[in-house]
Amino acid sequence: SVRSFSSRHQVRVPHQAAMVPARWRASRWIPLVSGMMLEICGGSIYITGLYNTDLKHRFFPGSDGQERIEQLVFACNLGNWLPAAGFFLDSRIGGARNTAAIAALLTLIGYLGVWAWSRGSIQPAFWQVWVFWFIWGHGSGWFDNAAMTIAVRNFPQHRGRSVALMKSFYGLSGSILTQVYNLFFFEATSDFLLFLGTAMAALGLACAQLLWLVPPSRLDDQDGPTWRLDMGLRLVMTLAVLLLAFGFARLWWPDGRLAVNIGAFVSVVVITGLLPLLMIRGTWSSQDPLLDAEQLGRSDGLAGADVGAGLPLSKALRMPELWLLLLIGFVGMGSGLVVLNNAGQMVDSFGPDAKATTMFVSLISIANCFGRITFGFVPDIFSHVPRPLFCAANVVIMGGAQSLLALGGKPALFAGGIITGFSYGGFWTLMPTLVVEIFGTSTFATLYNFQSLAVSASSLTFSTFIAGRLYDREAILHPAAAGGCSGPTCYRTTCLVMVAACAVGFVASLMLLRIMKRHVRSSSAGLSLAVT
User: Fold this and answer.
1) Greater model confidence, 21 or 478
2) Span 45-56, average pLDDT
3) Exposed, middle or buried, 400 (CB in 10 Å: 0-12/13-18/19+)?
4) Is 172 exposed, middle or buried, given 0-12, 13-18 or 19+ CB atoms closer than 10 A?
5) Where are the alpha helices (DSSP H) in 317-462?
6) Which end of the chain is more exposed for a tag (fewer CB within 10 A), N or C?
7) Phi and psi at residue 313, in whole multiples of 5°?
8) Helix (H) or strand (E) holding 127
């Protein structure tokens, strides 16, 4: 019963929760939409390519400049995937609200430090700049963890769609923030960094107040989860298509840049505003408005590590499935990060072009969004197909994209970058869903962040050490007039290394598929024996 759920998990409703109407707290759609807004806050990790080139030219003009920038990008990625947020969220003192509040604080501190360095207010040592990047990246991870945990626990029967919606918005957030950059902060790096620090922290704090966990007895299908989630996905896809169209308009109509930027920004505001209006409307009408606070569960989202069913962390760490997932994430996501983290440099290798760089980053972000939707929605439709098989297919897609990038040339760069963004986004939907399917929800936040450590390691290995050093070597052989590397060979060797890595990821996906099939057969045999 709802009452036993509350007493079992030591329900406690903070003072702030009492300010939210009880009938609102009976809706799981308000936390879902609030989580989507948190994903925008965390999505700034995808747009470093907008200002990395400017920072490199101003602060690291030497031959090791690209490696320095890669180290800073690795710092924010490491912060993003460090599993501290998961341990905190699953703890007794955690919860989604507290996690989001800490995320806002980290984001504010980190970006303010980078902003002060960028505008010349302070002259920190490189390791101090690295720490600032780590801090704001860590805040992005806390935002994402709070949002994702709310989604998987409030939608146990629709995890594929809910994760796809959450992660697709996370993937699109880079393009959303790019439109803000284009209209208000184009080539004004310091001002943009200040905006990211203050605006994302404020939005995160506001949305944190609207995160709560709905008790199991309220998680029925009377609130129309399928059509609401599908409508949300359609809105996100509509926004992605519109932003893609505006991106091409910038290339075809260079004299109308201001009009295109205004149109893109208005589209973002309108559709982002429609999401809560259409998805939340009427979701509390069938609920009892007189439910007391205890019946609605702990309003900050979670009651501790014992919420939900699943394997304990100690047992999960001993299972081969976890380590295979880590290997797949290391290869698949690491290959995508090489492109995401070096987007600006890849475009500049064919000649400096700020507009083309912005366009490339935006296209990758949009493809990232479509990948997250596709690999969340399609496996739910074809539920008879094991998800590891989708993982194997996605690794093949990533390998093909890297092969295309290795060919060289600007058309191949844009085509390969778009496919890479699509595949990279797909991994971010497949991985969390597989974590829930294999290990349950009781320690989801911890395992979700723990799995991300593989991605952090791949960023260090592939993007910082391999891509950065190979780029600097090619820059010596093929120098550009304005500094850096010029020509199609700048990232060719790196991409070929990624193709080989994807072959390893494909084998790991097939091994995971075999293990999961064996477990299913064992469970079926056990059930038959019990019935007999």
Assistant:
1) 478
2) 86
3) middle
4) buried
5) 320-341, 343-348, 354-381, 387-407, 410-439, 444-458
6) C
7) -60, -40
8) helix 126-154
Of the candidates 434, 462, 457, 460, which has an alpha carbon nearest to the alpha carbon of residue 83? 457
- Dihedral, CA atoms, 252, 405, 45, 197, nearest 10 degrees? -40
d(CA 428, CA 167): 7
Q: Which residues contact 169 (CB under 8 A, 6 or more apart)?
A: 36, 39, 40, 236, 369
What amino acid is encoded at 421 in this protein? Answer: G
- Distance, in Å, from the CA atom of 322 to the CA atom of 348, rounded to the nearest integer, reads 39
Closest CA to 426 of 396, 463, 382, 466: 396
What does the pLDDT read at residue 416? 93
Q: Is-contact 196 111, C-beta < 8 A?
A: yes
Q: How many residues does the chain have?
A: 532
**Taking residues 65-75, what's their average pLDDT?**
85
Check residue 140 and report its DSSP letter.
H
Closest to 177 in 3D by CA, of 254, 237, 265: 265
What DSSP letter does each residue of 174-223 carry, written as one string? HHHHHHHHHHH-TT-HHHHHHHHHHHHHHHHHHHHTT--PPPGGG-SSTT
pLDDT digits (tens, 9 = 90+) for 479-492: 877 777 888 888 89
pLDDT band at 294 (very low <50, low <70, confident <90, very high): very low
Report the C-alpha gap between 491 and 54 in whole angstroms. 20
Query: Mean pLDDT over residues 22-41, rounded?
Result: 84
Token pair belonging to 71? 């180290």
The closest of 144, 181, 177 to 163, measured between CA atoms, is 144
In this structure, are residues 152 and 159 in contact, taking their beta carbons and an 8 Å threshold? yes
| pTM of the predicted protein model | 0.76
Angle at 46 between CA 416 and CA 330, to 5 degrees: 70
Q: Tell me how far apart the terminal alpha carbons of the chain are, to the nearest angstrom.
A: 33
